[in-house]
Amino acid sequence: MEKEKSGKLEKSTEKKGMNRRKFLQVTGGALGAAVVGPLAASHAAKNPTAAKDMIKVASYTRGLVGPKLKMLGPIKNGGTIIAETAPGCWGPMITPKFKGGHEVTQPVAVEGAKIGDAVVIRLKKVKVTSIATSAGTHDAVPGTFNGDPFVARFCPNCKTKSPETVIEGIGYDAIKCAGCKASISPFKMPHGYIMTFNSEGSLGLTVGKTAAEKFARNGRKYSALPAASEQHSILVFAKHDIPGLVSRMRPMVGNIGTTPSIMMPDSHNAGDFGAFLIGAPHEYGLTKEQLEQRTDAHMDIDSVREGAILVCPVKVDGAGIIVGDMHAQQGDGEIAVHTTDVSGEVTLQVELIKGLALDGPVLLPPKEDLPLLAQPLTAGERAKAKALAKQHGVTLEDVAPIQVVGSGADLTAAVGNGLARASKLLGMSDGEVRNRVTINGAVETGRAPGVITISLMAPAKTLKKIGIAHLVKEQYA
Q1: Among candidates 461, 476, 456, which has minimal Cα distance to 397?
Q2: DSSP 8-state secondary structure symbol assigned to residue 201
Q3: How far is it, in rounded angstroms, from Cα 102 to Cα 475?
Q4: Where in the chain is CATH 2.60.120.580?
Q5: N or C: which end of the chain has fewer CB within 10 A?
Q6: SS3 of 103, please?
Q7: Interval 183-215: pLDDT, tens
Q8: CA 117 distance to own-chain centroid
Q9: Would you give the end-to-end CA distance of the chain in angstroms?
Q10: What would be the CATH architecture of the domain defined by 47-126+250-363?
């Protein structure tokens, strides 16, 4: 049993866990209720709301996001959050007690953040800590869920809702109901793989049967699941359908942003997955209007990686920054719906922008990730452009690139959502946005079926007016 085999690992990490708890107590108790000690209690009693320069978060929400969750912090404007992240998707998907398809971090409040503001998240470091991971296409198992296999699971034998489970052996049938011992995984993986990584973190390799079964028998260790993570490791499935495939590693974060103003599964905090909540028969069913309270933190955009800057809407007081679902690599579109979900460490720096009301995120990716037509002109190109402008009696418009994130039930709806958000943000007509995107930008797919980015060159005077010109200059100067 993996549970028995992981016992030694848990004991071996107990000392590290104690050191981490001592560190967190000194810095203000970033694990909230999960960490209680004399020093933390004394600090809290003296100054319970003191904002901190740095918070380390290593506690999770069992698949939920929303205003009812306790926030850590607050973090100071300009402060640093270090998030120890657990894998998203497959691990939570085969852990039926979870209420969502990810295991994001406990939200962190930002000092002074109020509804109608925006929070800047600078991704300073994105580091993979897993030794191996597994992913593939999915099929839901009938008779194990009510309306949504990511959200409302139950045991097909004893009918217990969101049951506790244990692992016995390896393979699909290894996930057992703790009560009646029936096999209980809500998902199968028709085609999948296990990938392991080289020591320098530059390449991943899919393995064969022998290695896959070795990883499966000690999944928690090889997934490097954080101490407080409650998910099962998907390595237990021991999938090995495409051995010997090599891919470059390019770590990115799939679920990062702010807390929505309504309780929902963390994986459904976007217009495409969120569409499955509309009229759903379980406790997290929403109306179409309620879904607009989402923050689109679940983006799965491959350029949300080290060096990127996100500007996120504040829809609850405190903002509630969440992080999770790190991927070792992902191509545009995440066509298999799942990719190489890994444990990791993400270092963020936050900044508060007062009065910038956003419907969804604005992304400033690393310069090399911009589509060609949205990249700033080189010095040589600009000199030629000035000469051409002088010849025709016009002044060059001062512009800079931004990306607006859109989401919807499908890609067409997502594009419409992104264009509407860009129009509102920049104070432009729909026609002007469409023209600028066509000749100075692009529409790119984050996740199929329904997350996209709208890239365009925006007037510098407009960016200054809305309060993000300094970010654009920082990123693309």
Answers
A1: 461
A2: S
A3: 30
A4: 47-126+250-363
A5: C
A6: coil
A7: 999 999 999 999 999 999 999 999 999 999 999
A8: 21
A9: 55
A10: Sandwich (2.60)
